[in-house]
């Protein structure tokens, strides 16, 4: 495997992995918060993830991220060491989420090419303050600070390694200086002692409390580290041994005189006695610290998949999809090539069948590669519900159904915002306060259900709440106030009334809250969803709840379309918006005094769009009775499109209109184009524009 | 050319180490995302040297180091640690780690460390 050697890809990986990590963290926190007791496993996991983020961020020089993660790591290090102390950790989730938000925010800046310049000092201060608080509590709760004692006990050089009675031979003193900036000098000294102990008996060392505190590391850094030992090895060999030390700046090795050695021995013995006395009290606490260390974290299976999954830039997948689309078309151009007409080509036919099979498989695979489960988007809503129900003081449960349902990655990206908006709306306006719920004999805890399921080539996403439902009178009054009513309210169906809330400039809640009603209304939802070729519908029962259904196509890259002919041109109408097609009867046609053509179908009147007029195409068929009508619907509005003939229904690969066409021509009413099997171009109609133009007229 | 096994749960870290090492003439024979896989890969590839992260899920670097040492007493394992992990590094050294590096490390530090460990007997 070769790795691209630019720093950029390392940054990409950093962003990707860190985002993944914070998402995982968030899940852990939210899950644990429900049980209000953190499991040892969760604490270890959080500690580990914070540790990873800290390390990676430090490598990428994102110091503010690294510092925040470091503080959080410290906090969890403390918690996991005091897990048996039953300290109240109820504030921890909030703190960690603060940290996560900060890191996520900085990541977003990095992602958009900015610099991570956020100031994390507030957050680190908060965490530090909390840490010292719980430290205090834990110290009060237990006699003496056991954690620290256990640490000291394991940190000092073990007695077995400093042994004066063992071994004979010559006594030596070595003075070692390390290179500047090599870090953890005390450990490097410890390493030397450890390796030395293999063939020598270490008598003493200076500083003798090598690892007790940062001070000794500083001492070693400045003055060097001294060790006295006894061994049978020759001077030259010893010198070589020390020379092998990594980051060695200098080594002085000397043979000790007998009396000098004796003095050191006596001093060492005195010290050992004093230490033995002091150790007595701390000894029994040590077992507790050790027992913790032996506790291995419970296995956690989902991480096993990491090795077999790689991340691919979506742009590359788009390109791949494009190419496969081209391939499918080229294949058709070869197989249906006019030059082959009338020829008997048995072998060629066999080969083309094989080619066709493989291109089809390829197309399916590429499609499936772009599919991702909705789980990520759905899981994000847990946080939204948690934060909001806390702030609004409502008890709400989020139920998720069918999160394994898959949809195109591009569509899912567009789904996140609308979904968040809908969930917020449900929580803010839908679910009643606890008191109100109890009054109306509803369960105390409100429920918001997020459901996803497949329906043919579409995915249905349903946001349902068991709140108070929509109030028709209120909606009508509000719509009237804002001048949004197009027809008399008595003529409107319930659905039409509910759909008013999706219009721009509509908002029923009198007071503006932090979450919904910041001037952005539900129209944002409709807009975002229709951008990806989907639709939104709403249903509600007063006092029982509201259900909002989003219908999105599985993918944007391939559309199920009806090909129609106008003159010599071919157009494709997305099947999702076609209601029916029919031959008109002359007596159903109506022309109003302004010359607008309309048609009556089952007592309803629809506007007519002549496609040949819309796009100024030459055609022989201008008489309604010779052509055919396609009734298309979008945004709950319907229009009849007049075409020459229907060619047939097929899945087409959608391509954006080339920029030079977009820039030089009016492309209203077109959403893209596609190549047909015979190599000719078909333009894909934007039904939304047709119903819109109908309104304008 | 020395053959290296990188054990780290963070893909970012693995890539960072890989880049530095490959630039300096090391061959990365395998990567592992936790201690347990680390042992498997060690037995499979018999690398000259292993860089071992400490904090990993499933099996920590120290446990993995101990196991590897059990299979191959001469295994050369370099611990990748961070400030604040002194106690663990110490345990690692006692368990037979040849040396350690501290994150965030300087490029020449990791190279110097690995070169010395490879050169040592």
CATH-scheme architecture of chain B: 3-Layer(aba) Sandwich
CATH class of the largest domain in chain A: Alpha Beta
Percent strand of chain A equals: 15-25%
The parts of chain B where pLDDT drops under 50 for at least 5 residues are: none
The H/E string of chain B reads EHEHEHEHEH
Q: Under CATH, the topology of the largest domain in chain A is which?
A: Heat Shock Protein 90
Strand arrangement within the widest β-sheet of chain A reads 14-18-19-17-16-15
What is the domain tally of chain A?
A: 5
**Number of separate helices of chain A:** 21
In CATH, what is the homologous superfamily of chain B? Response regulator
Q: How many strand units of chain B?
A: 5
- Helical residue percent of chain A? 40-55%
Main sheet properties of chain B: 5 strands, parallel
Shape label of chain B: globular
What CATH architecture of the largest domain in chain A would you give?
A: 2-Layer Sandwich
* SS class of chain B: alpha/beta
Q: State mean pLDDT of chain A (0 to 100 scale).
A: 77
Strand content of chain B: 15-25%
Write a structural description.
The complex is a heterodimer of chains A (697) and B (121). Chain A has 697 residues and is of the alpha+beta class. Chain A has 5 domains: 7-142, Four Helix Bundle (Hemerythrin (Met), subunit A) (Up-down Bundle), CATH 1.20.120; 152-285, Alpha-Beta Plaits, CATH 3.30.70.1110; 315-372; 374-553, 2-Layer Sandwich (Heat Shock Protein 90); 558-696, Beta Barrel (OB fold (Dihydrolipoamide Acetyltransferase, E2P)). In chain A, the strands form 5 sheets. Chain A has a 6-stranded mixed beta sheet. Chain A is elongated and about 125 Å long. Chain B has 121 residues and is of the alpha/beta class. Chain B is built from 5 helices and 5 strands. Chain B has helices at residues 11-23, 35-45, 61-71, 86-94, 107-119; strands at residues 3-7, 27-32, 49-53, 77-82, 99-103. A 5-stranded parallel beta sheet of chain B has the order 2-1-3-4-5, with helices on both faces. In chain B, helix 4 (86-94) links the parallel strand 4 and strand 5. The longest helix of chain B is centred in the first third of the chain and has 13 residues, at 11-23. Chain B is globular, with a radius of gyration of 12 Å. The mean pLDDT of chain B is 89. The interface between A and B is large, with 46 and 44 residues.
